[in-house]
Each structure stands twice: as C-alpha cells, then as structure tokens.
Fold each of these.
Amino acid sequence: MRLPNILLYGFVALVLIWLMIPVLIILPMSFSGARFLTFPPPSWSFRWYEAYLGSAAWMQATRTTLLIGVCSSVIATILGTAAAYALNLGNTRLVRSLQMILLLPLVVPIVIIAVGVFLVYAHVGLLATLTGLVVANVMLGLPYVITSVLVGLRKFDQTQEMVARSLGMNRWRSFFAVTLPQIRPSVISGMLFAFISAIDETVVALFISGGETQTLTKRMFTALRDEIDPTIAAISSLLTAASFLLVMLAALNARSTERRQQGRRG
Amino acid sequence: MSAMTPSPADLHDRRERWLLLALLAPALAIVLLLLIVPLGWLGWQSLRDDSGFTLIHYERFLSDPVYWKTFLQTFRIALTVTLVAVLLGYPVAYVAAGLPGRWGMLVLAMVLLPFWTSVLVRAYAWLILLQRTGLVNSALKSAGLIDAPLPLVNNEFGTVMATIHILLPFMVLPLYATMQKIPKELTMAGSSLGGTPLHVFIRVFLPLSLPGLIAGMVLVFVLTLGFYITPELLGGGRTYMVSMLVSRNIEVYNEWGAASSISVVLMVCVFLVFRLASLLIPFERIMGTR
C-alpha cells in the first residue's frame, strides 16, 4: 500500500472511532455504582436501571413516548406512502411544488415548527393531549416516509402495475398485490425512520406536551439541564439498544426481500 | 372532437388527476394546517403590535446588539460545522465508495450507527467525555500534557463538536450516493492518459462528486442554523443560537412579536441558502428523492 493511502485509511479509521466513542461510552456509565459521572466507574451496579424501571414517572413517560411513536409512524406511513405514490405518477410543476411542501418539515428549523404547532394547538385545545402529539409527529415523520418510498418507487417498473390492471385487477388490488410487495423494504425503512424520529423528538414536545402526556425526551431534557445523574445513562443505553435492534430487523428484512426477488428472477 | 363531449381519454385523465389529488390530500392537509398556516400567522404577527401595523419587531435587529450577535454566532457556528464536516466526511465517503462491496457497507454502517442514536443521548455522552473531570481531560492530565482541565464543554467548542458529530451522516450519505455512481472507467482512463493520482482526483473525480458535496453542505448548513437541543445542553449559556432566542422570547418574556420576527428572518435565511443551492443542483437532489 502506498503512503497516501495509508494516511487516508488511518484518517478515516480515526473519524469512525470518533463517531462511535460517544455511543459506546454510555453503556459502562449506566452500570456505574457511583452517583457522579466518573470514568471508569469506581464500582458496578444495576441501581440506575432499577431507578428507571422503578420510577412511576419515568415509566409513564416511556409509555407515552412508545404510544406516540407507534401511532404516529403507522399513520405517517399510510399517508406518506399514498402521497409518494401520487408524487411518483404526476410530473407536472404543481406536483413538484407539492412535493416541496411535503418535505418542508425536514428543513424548517424545529423551533419554528414547535412555535407554530403550539399556536395552532392553543387555538383548538390540543395542548398536552396525546392526539396533538401524535398528529405533530405524523407531520414530522411524513418527509422520511415520502423520500424513502419515492426512492423505492423510482426503482420499480410501473408497467407491472399496468399489466396487472390490464389483466382485470382494479387499481387498489393491483397496488397491494403487485406494487407494495416490491417496494416493501422502502416502506418499512420509511416507517422506521418515522418511528425513531418520533421517539427522538424533543423540541416540539417541550412546547406542547405536559402533565400526563409528558414524553420521555422532555423529561430527559429537563433532567439533563438541571442535574446529571446516571439514570439518564441507563435510559440512554436502553434507547440505543432498542434502536439498534430495530435497524438490524430492518436490514434483515431488506436482505430477505432482496434474496426472494433474486430467487424469483434466477 | 367537440368541446362539449370529452373524449374517454380526457375523462380518464381527469379521473386520474382527482385520484392523485385524493392520495395527496391527507398528508398535505396536515402540513398545511400545522406548518404553512402557522408560518403565515408568524409573518402577520411579526408586523403588528397592540396599535396595528408596525416595523418595531424588525427594527430591533438594527438596534439591539443581542439580535445580530446571535445571528452572527449562529452563522459562524454553521460555517465552521459545515467546513469541518466536509473535511471529515469527504474522505470517509471516498473510502466507503472505493472499497469493495461488503467493506464499503461496513464503513457506511459505522457512519450510520450514531445516526440511529438519540440526539439527547449523544449530547449527554459528549457532556461525560468533555466535562472538567471527563475522560478527555483526565486522559490528557495523566499523560502530563496539561496541568489544569481544558474548558471543552459549556462553550462554543463543545457545541460545535457535538453538532458535527450529529450532522456528519448528512454529509457522508449524499456524498457516498454520488461517488458510487462515478464510473471507475473514468478515473482509470484519466490515469492511463498519464495523470498522476492527485491530478486525476482533482480533474476527474472531484468535479463529478460536486453535486453530492453541495447537497451535503446545504443540508448540514441549514440544519445547523436551526439547532436547538445541542447548544442548549452543551453551550453552557454562553453559546446563544437563533433557535434559543426564539424560545426565550416566548418562554421567558412572552414576546410573541419578537419571536415571530426572529422566526421570519431565520426562515428567510434558510430559504436563501436553498435558493442559492438550487441554482447549482435541483432541490430534489438535495433531499435525495432523485
């Protein structure tokens, strides 16, 4: 290997390590026996996991977050897939500007979105309600679903659906029987993005959630601002483990679909 | 064909258009009601006070140094983050795109892993690493490199560090997508015609990767402009970004007029960046839908 290449690979390895370290540091911290964040921990224990799992307030916040994550990602996936299907078929200037509008939640600064949602909800009485939080997270999840499904649809040969329809299937059935199975990996990865974005969402929740509907991230944010204690490390480790698990499932799903399609072709 | 009786093809077209609209309607309704309408309302409110029309909320941008200083600091941070992200992200994407299949995917997966971790979790991790008694400071101390702990967090440095960490995937992904499509034959042709590796890189590879580079830079820059969580947790009250100015004006001072005008100016900045970028590459390209 030539010297410039060694330097290049070495540099990239350092960047990758730098990317991983903060994620990996949390796990040992969460098993610390001490009240303070010293590394390496002076002793080991499960006390911060017990503190989290034994706290009614943390558990309530976790349930709220999971409920919001599941509901909003499922709704965002249905609405977003429908929208992406339409965006893929239409190619007029109107359709292109509609696409821009639908992707806006991704680029408008989150604080401005939060202020706007707060204003609307204050007028219609949706502040501190589960419905309000779900709808807001549907909006934030839509761009992820739409971009992911659009990419899938662009790779899919639309004439297959035409064929199914010319053979007598109606549009609805041909979509579910022919198109959906083939774009399934992109639909699922869009849903996953929407789910994780909903679980991770903090700023909008800071403005519109409260009391009974306080989300996990809102509680974590307040805890981090006031006092740092390793309970957060325990929650963080669980959150990280959960999202890794989800990503692995999605990757497996994508691979099995690919293999099945290859099998059909070969 | 008379204008009175539409042909079957016309009828079909019209039905098709209604179908598309019906499929788009629910998603559009949510974005319109929760985003577009409030944006318009913020714009309206930024021009009014108790007595009616006023420009007072915008005049503060000239008179109150906190306003323009905050915008200046935000833009400086966004620029720093973008440039460092290019320096770190370009080699990573280059290596990931150049390595054979499985190894390239592994590099990409390592870039994506932190991407799947909560932003709060990562802010917390940086706090642990960079604080006065943190890992970095104690390592430097025991190595004898420093006597007193370095101020690594609760300032702009910590904020920039964590922001780059969070946004690096947004730089690497579009770059990787673009580089992967560059045919190997082109760089091979370049070197067979006598170009040195550096020369081939600058004349052939770099220009072809520019669309991905621009997309990544725009995304990182715009997202940094709107960052809130990271400066709030890692800035230690000294790093004041525009988003925090908006939230303070509402939560602490209940000043909706001021918050509205700041939001409008921030939105205009974001759109100007996109407008400028769209002169170079289409919007869909930046968002990765094409």
Amino acid sequence: MIEISNVTKEYKTGNEKVPILKGVDLSISEGEFVCIIGPSGSGKTTLLHLLGGLDIPTSGNIQLQGSELSSKSEKQRTLIRRREIGFVFQNYQLLPTLTVYENIVFPIHADGKKVSPKEVETLLEAVDLKGYEKRFPHELSGGQQQRVAIARALIHNPKILLADEPTGNLDRQRSGDILDLLATFHYKRKQTIVMVTHDMFAAGYADRIILFKDGVIEAEVKREDDDYAKFLTRFMA
Amino acid sequence: MSVKHSLLALLYEKPRHGYELKTGFEELVQGMWPLNAGQVYTTLDRLERDEFVTSPGHDKKDRKLYTITNAGQEELWSWLEKPVGRSLLKDEFYFKFLCASHVSYENKQTMIRNQKETMLKDVLHLTHLKKQMVIMDNKTMKMLIEGALLHLEADLKWLDMIADV
Amino acid sequence: MLSSLLVSWRNVTRHKKRFLFTLIATVLGVAVMTSMFIAKGTFANLMEEQEALYAGEADFWVQSSDRFFSEQEWNEVLEQEQIDASVSSLFVHGFVEQESGSLAENSVRFTGVSNFQNELIALPVKDGDVTKEGLIITENAAKLWKKKVGDKVTFQDMGEMEITAIVYEGAMLNSPKTMEEALYKDFRVMVPLETLQKWAGKEGQISNYRFRVKEDTNKNELLTTYQTGLAGTSLFVQPIVMDSKQNNDVDDMYFVFDLIAILSIFISGFIAFNMIHTSILERKKEIAIMKSLGYTSGSVIRLILRETGFLAVIGTFFGIGIGIWLGVFVQDILIAAISSQEVSYDLVLGEPIIISIIIGLLFPFLAAALPLYKAGRTPILEGMFNKNGTQTGFKRLHRARIIIGLVCTGIGLIDNVWAFLFLFIGLVLLFPLWMRIAGFCLHPIVGLLFRFSGKQAIQSIKQFENRIANTTAMLAIGVCLALFMSAALEALPKGMEKEIRATYGGDILVEKETPWTDSELGSLMEMEGVQTAFAYKEIPNVTWLTKDNELREFSLMSYSEQSSLPFMVTDETDQESDYPAIYVGERALTEWGGEVGDVFSLNTPAGEQAFFVKGIAQTTHYSNYVGIVEESVMSDELNWPGRYHVMLDVEDESHISTVLSEIWNQFGADIANTDTVTNNIEQTTRAISGMEELMQGLLLLIIAISAVGVSNTLFMNTMERIRELGTMRAIGFTKGQVRRMIVAEGLFIGIVGVIFGTLYGILVIYLNSISKDAQGLVSFIIPWNSFALAVAGGIIFTLLASWLPSRAASRIPVKEAINYE
C-alpha cells in the first residue's frame, strides 16, 4: 500500500539546511491503522505531509499503491490527493465561508464530480451532524468541527486517511469521540489510516505504533507484540 | 464486588439455571471477570437462604431453575440506589506508597515506574477494548471503559507527580 | 522615536507586495494630480506672460478711433513730467517679396517702434541683437522665408531692410508656421518707426502710444485728466490690462484638469483606504494585546499614523518627481494642440508643487481616518479572543450607506458642473448594492465559465464585499469618465461647429485699416458669389472693473437692424432703462460678477459710460468674452465713427476662397486681417482633437490606477485567506483551480466595473446633453468605439491585474499555509 524507502527531507532556514527526515524506511499495508508518535520536531508531521503529496522528499522514494509519488507533477499529486487521500488536521481547517455541507462536499466538487446526496446523508449521520448542514464552522464546537473535517476527509471514500494530531485541540471526551469515529470508519471501510499523535490514549487505537526521534524511526511495535506496553512506557513516560 | 447483585440482575431479566447465570455474567462483563461455577452456586445458596431467590423446580435437563423474589427485587433496587463512597486507602498502590515512604524504601522510583508501566498497559488494553466495543456498538461497556480510562489518566498524572517529588 | 519609527516601518513592510502596490497607486495618483496642476499653472502663466509681453511694462496707452493719429496732436496733451518711459508704435500692412505665394500668404504686419532700446517691449531673442535698429522677424518667418540674421528682406512697394534679430514666437511678434496658415495669418515683423512711416507714407502718424508713469503718480486721477483732455477728439486713453480671456476659452480645459486631478487622488485615496483598513483588521488581535498592555487608543492611533506617514511621504516624494515629468509632457501636448506656434514657456512649479505636496501628504491620512477610528475602538477582549471574525455569506447592507448614497446620487442629478462629483460619491456608496444586483445575474455565468473555481470566487467576493465594491467602484468611475470624455470629445466638434455657424454672423470677416466706405461695400456686394456684405464697428480694449475691483478688458462689437446678428441671445430681460443697452457675452458676465438687468460701467473711448445689461450674448467672436451694443450707440455715445469690419455672406461655402482672393486683390494693401467661418471651425475642432489623445491618455492612466487597486485588493484577499487557500490545496484544489478562482474574482470586478461604468457613463452623457450649462454643445451620443475600448480595456486591465495575485495565490506553499495564523 505505502512504501517509504530511505526518504530524507531538508528545509532551508536562511543559508542553513536543516534536515528533518534523515532516512526513513517504512512499509504500511492495506487496511492498517498506523500511529506515528514522537516528540515535536521529530519529523512525524513532515512525513505525513510527504505521504499526502503536499511536499516532495529531498531524496528517497514514496510509493502509493505501487506508483512513485515524488516523480509526479504537482497537479498529479493534487489529483491523487483529492481522489485517494483524506486529510484531517489538528486545527480542523474548515473553510470559514462555506457551510458544513459545502465543506464536506468540497473535494468532490473540486474534482468536478456530482455529489450523491445519499452518501452525504449517510456520512452526516455517521458523524452525528444531521441538521447541521447549513451551519457555518464558527457556529460549531471544536469537536463538531473536527467531525465535519472527518466527513470531508471521507466523502470521496479515499483509500488512505492521513490524520495530523486530530485530537490535539480537544478534551479527553471529545477526542475519544473523534477516535471512536475514526475506528468505526476504519472497521467499516477498511481504510489505511496513518495518524500522527502524541496522545497515548489515541495511540491505543492503532495496530502499529511507530516512534520517531530526530528524523528517524527509533522503534516500532505491533499490538500483538508482548512488549507493546513496555515499549510505550519507555518512550512516552 | 457484588457477584450477588449481578446474579440478582440477571435473574430479574428472566429465570435461569446456574450455568446460564455463569455465562450470562461473563457476557455482561465481556469476559473480563471469569467466574467459576462453585462461586455461582455458593452465591445462589446464600441468596436462597436470604430468600432473595427461589426455585420453581427443574428444567427438562434436570437443571435447577432460579427466579427472583420480591425481597430479591427490593434488595437489588436498594443496592442500585446506594451511592458508592471512595476510600483513600482502598487503592492498594496508595497503601504501598504510604508504606514505602514509611520505611524509606530505596527503590521507590522503580516501584512507581513499574506501576506506571502496568497502568499504560491497561490504557492500551482498554483503548483497544473500547475500540472493539465501539465497533460492536456496546454502549454500556464503552462507557465503563471510558470511566476506567479517565481514572487511569488521573492515576498516571498522579504517578508523574509523585515521581517528581 | 527612532525605534517606534522602525517598528512602524516593519509593520508597513510586513506585506511587501501590498505596500508596494498601494505605494504605486499613491505615486501615480500624486503624479497625475501634480502634472495637472503644473500643466494648468504653467499654461495659465504662459497666457498671462504672453499678454504681459504684449502689454509690456506700460501702464496706459493712447489710441485713436481713426486708427492712426499724429504724434503732434498727442504731444500737445501729454504731460511729460509724469512719464517714466514710453514708446510709440505704428501698425501697417504690407507684403513681402517672394518668388511664389499669393498676396494673402505674403501679407506682413509691420510694427514700427520708436525706440528699440525701450523698456516697455520685451522680446525673446533667438539670434542677433534686438536693441539694434533694423528688421526683427520671428523664427517661423525666418524658416518660411529662408532668412538669417544679416540677410536682407524686400517688401513690396516699400523697400528692403537687413535682419538684425530673430526672436521666438510670442505675443508681440509671431508668424504662421506653414504657408497654409499664412493664408489667414500675417507675418508680424518689427521695424524702426521712422522707416515705416516713410515706407507707408504716414509721416508723423502712429497707431498707439504706450507709457509708464512715475511711481508716485495717482493713476486714477491721471486717467480722468487725460479722458477729459481728450474728450471730443478721436484720441482716447486706456489703462493697460492683462486679460487673455478674449483670446482663449480655457476654462473648460482647466475644469477637466481639476477633475482628473481630483479623480486620480480620489482613487488613490480609496486604494490607501483599502490597505490601511485591511492592515488594521488583520492586526486587531495585536492591537488588542497592545491595549491590554497599557496602550491607549491614542497610542494605537499614533502607531497607525506613523505607518500612514510612510505611505504619504514616500508616495508624495516620488509622485511629485514623476508628476513634474508628466506635467512637462502634458504641457507640450497641450501647447501643440492649442497654439499653432512653438512657444517657449517657463514651468510653473512652485504653487502646484506646494499644493500637491500638501494634498499628497494629507490624503493618505484622510483615507486612514475611518480605519483609525475603528482601530482606536478595538475592544480588548473581542480583539484578543475573536473567533477570527469570519464573515459568512452576505452581511446586511448598511442602511445608512444606502440612504446617503441615494441622497448623493440625487444631488448628482442637479445641473451643475461640480454636482456630478456627488454622483460619484453616490456611486461608491451604492456600489455594494449594485454589485449584488450584478452578482445576481453574473454569478451563474461565472459559475458556468469557471465551474467550481468560479463558485469559490463568488464566496470570496461575498466575503470581501466592501473592499471589492470599493475597488470596482473606482474602476467604474474610470470607465464612466472615459466614456463621458470620449462622448464629449466626439460630440463637441459638431456642437462647436453648429454654434460657430450660428453665431459667427457670416462666412468671411474682413478688417481694414481704414473705414469701409459705401462704394467699397458696393463693390464687395458685386463680387461673384457674395450674397450680402455689411460693415460693423468694433471697439478694442474697453476696460471695466469686476465686482471684486479687478481691472478687465474686452472688445465691444456693434449690431444694427440691417445686419445679421453675429451672436445669439440666450437670456434677455423685458426691463428698459435710460442707459444704452448692452448684451454681454456669458464669460464676460461671469467674470464681471453681475447679472442681466444690472448696470455695467465701461471705460470707453468716450470716457466712462454706464450701460444697462439687457441680456446675455452667445458668440464665437472673442471666445464670448465681449460686449455687444447697437451701432448707433457707438457713434452717438462712444465717439466711434468708423466701421472697419465687414462680414460677408457667400452663396456657398465653396466660394469662400475665390471671394477671399478677390478681396485681397482689390483691397490688399488696406486689409488688416481676414478670417472665415470655416477657418474658425477648423481651428477650434483641431484644438479639440489635439486634446483628444491627451485626454484619453490621462483617462487610461486613471483606469491604470484603478487596475493597480484591483491587483492590490486581490492580493489582500489572497493573503487574508492564505490558510484557507492552503486547506483547499491540501484537500484537492489544483494550482490551476486556485489561479482560475482569483482570475474569476478579477473578471467579476472587471465586468461589474465596466457594466456600471458604462451605465453611469451613459447617465452622465445624458445629463450633460440636457444640461443648460453645457449649452447643448454636447449632444447625446454613445461613443461606440470608446465603449468597445472601455469594455475591452476594463476587462483586459483587470485580467492583467489579477494575473500577479493569482500566481502568488497558486504558489502559496500548502504546508506553511495550513499553519498560517
């Protein structure tokens, strides 16, 4: 599904080149729920952006469903993004001038396709936002906004869902709701989910947890592994 | 805890025989509390003695059936109504911490770390369980896990707190 | 202070592009304004200078109703001890000896001057020595005659003389530029008085005597003394007055210049307003934090004022610089259009630059006033914790704005030259409403053309409604004005031609050195093609005082029962008076400050004389700066017996040239001047078409300033939505879609601007066509060419203007944009 091999990424700050990713190898199989954790600045968000084609790696390869992402043009990457990938962000990133409904169907419209009203209805029901279609983002609570964002990320039924700290701005209960929602969709739609988080409680939802540190994968653990908890305690304490 | 009352709750639902009660209980707690048959029968005997349950006879396979009595129902209601207090020293780790401080236990940090590890393990376990409950749409159990997770969160914070002292 | 300036500078340059665009708009606005003021000032000064050069440094002059008088006669009255300097002149016509050319083409007007070293006549020397007695010609004459200093020129039946100096064209001496022009224009040359008297057989005769009195002399007393002394003779004395209004009607041009200056600064002001307003909105949170830390409203205002100051100072500095250059450019075109000669001029910079600096420094602050008021009032808590204050959909239209807008529009419909400025203010105020109406029809089209990008563009238009409305209103005003000007320039020549034909009074005008006799008139009538010929009187240099006590002068023309009227009466009173009646040209009436029915006192050859203003006259002659009285009044009351002017009607305009050459053949030596209605029309319309390109260029500049505003607005819209744009890109908008979205916004601005610019343009053209002030000179026409040009120009300009912002928007790095605060 996703093959990342020897990916590096550097950013220029002034004249200085700052390496963010220093050679990452990672393979994610279809339907897997992977969680990336690590201290801030460790490169986990950068990797997510690379996976979403928002940026291209300085070196190395990223393959999505067998095709190389970094060799694609900006436009092709955008097209892949709006057809194959759903994005959920920490700060929701809803478009303030669009209604809940308009926000959700944006990726479909951007693709010039027709929206199936039934699909939207199902989705709205699933995220428990029926009756909110005509509201504007600022009229919603944080949790509701993130639910809209999730609906928007899923409207085109993408193969991959990328979530960047989806619960970062929410309290325990609301982040629980959001994660439950993701879990439900994961179960029902068998999407591949890559989630960046620093929240232990969120990490528990994943099949596999990958720890980033200083731009490399420090360790990873599967849920079946015996030392799952020990591993986490070591890094998250 | 009260196996006694959970059996009353199960019997309130419908008359059952001993084995049914055992499976019913395990289903209720999602298999997280294995109950052996002996425990079921001793509890049933005690309930029968207190006249909270009574037996209308045996089923076709000659298994003794139990039903709840009026007194049993009242006992169940009054149990449900009664609030549960929280004792400071009921948590064993609290007590351990108290004693460890009393004897100036050298490996207090290790003790705390081990406890934390266990708790994190619980968190991951419960999270995973919760995910399954969500998928299975078991709302009551989900809420229980939610509560446990909140406790764990608080405990973890507290462990961080005492580890720093 | 220095550090706070530094902080302000940092704030200003935080958004470099926005600041740059606003600065460009400011610079252009100030530049156009400065150039208009400079052109106006320089031109006015030039006319005054020309007049002054002609008048010289003299205070009074003496002339005769017989045209010539003997020096002797005058010397008897003259009181020498009061005179500081004086010069006698004689005007005589003659012909230069040329191998080719008709009499008319070779006609020369000599000015014989008694003293070449006098201080009263100043000549702009090009070559040679003007103080040396000899022949002085102008540069045009030298070119056409192919002569240089030291060459000799021969004049028919007179003699020859050596050229001692060649001067630039000026008021005193000037010559036609081409031989075609020479048909209607004399070569004016200067020769010593005595020689000319001998050549012309006018020994002891002069045309006028100019003098300057000593400083301590009471001029009014002196005038009265001489008027009494000369009473009953043909001689009369007049103070010398500098009044160029007879020769040029430039008021309308000044008006247009003022208008363009006001508009350019108005548009720049709005662009500055948009920027400052946005900058304050953006920094609401910052301002709230500052206030929470103890900044008073006053300190906040000072902070913003300093930032505005940068804009004002830099914009004015560069604007003035470019404005001076532009002013010279405009001035050159103007002189080429209006004057047939190359006239050297001095740039008038002082006053225009001071005014421009004051306005240039002030208007950004005016533009900042409203945003400042808001900034000072930013509530701390709301500002610090605002939910990004995003507006959703349309806000309710501001009712007060609409009402004031309607009132202004109502005032704008009043028939007054300045009233339509209110129409424009109304346009700006009502524009959000117009935009909604237009949006109602245009949104589906934009949606159809740009698909989903178009729909997002409409969202953004709704979001930034006020800013976009302001910007579009500026474009609309530019388009409106461009259309109006084109219509005016297209219709004006026709209207002028109509008016000239209606008020010229005939086809050919001939002025002679001696009065027309009845037999001469008879022979004129017998000429082939001539229908009628009638002589009339004209008294030059009649002076009068305005209501503000300024001395002015014009000419008096006569009318009689037999002659056709060389004027139209536009307003007349039924009242009668004991004073003789006078019809006053409208411009003179305005200058004087009186009304129909008032009594108007004039200094005539017969001394001071009161007239009853019977009505307002409209005539082509003397640019309508003239008085018209009955012929009998001239002879009976004004001591003016001679009729030197004759107006001819020909059967057909094609006869004009043959009749004209016949006249030259018969009366050649005596002819002082000829003019024809066709020549008049041609000159007037040529001046207008000469201005046409200039005006169109200036209007294009105004539309360009509006286009800068469009760019700036789109930039601001983009920058404010940087996070949204990042999100859109992240969830699947391609770069192309983002680009198309911004271009769609620009296109919407362009289309709406053009639509309402056109509608308002047509309204203004219509208002002007029914305006009494415009006297029906501008008929209602829609200039289709300009219309097409405005439509294409407006849309192309805005598309160009949206190109940069659209590129900038599509290049926003998604990753940074998502986390952009």
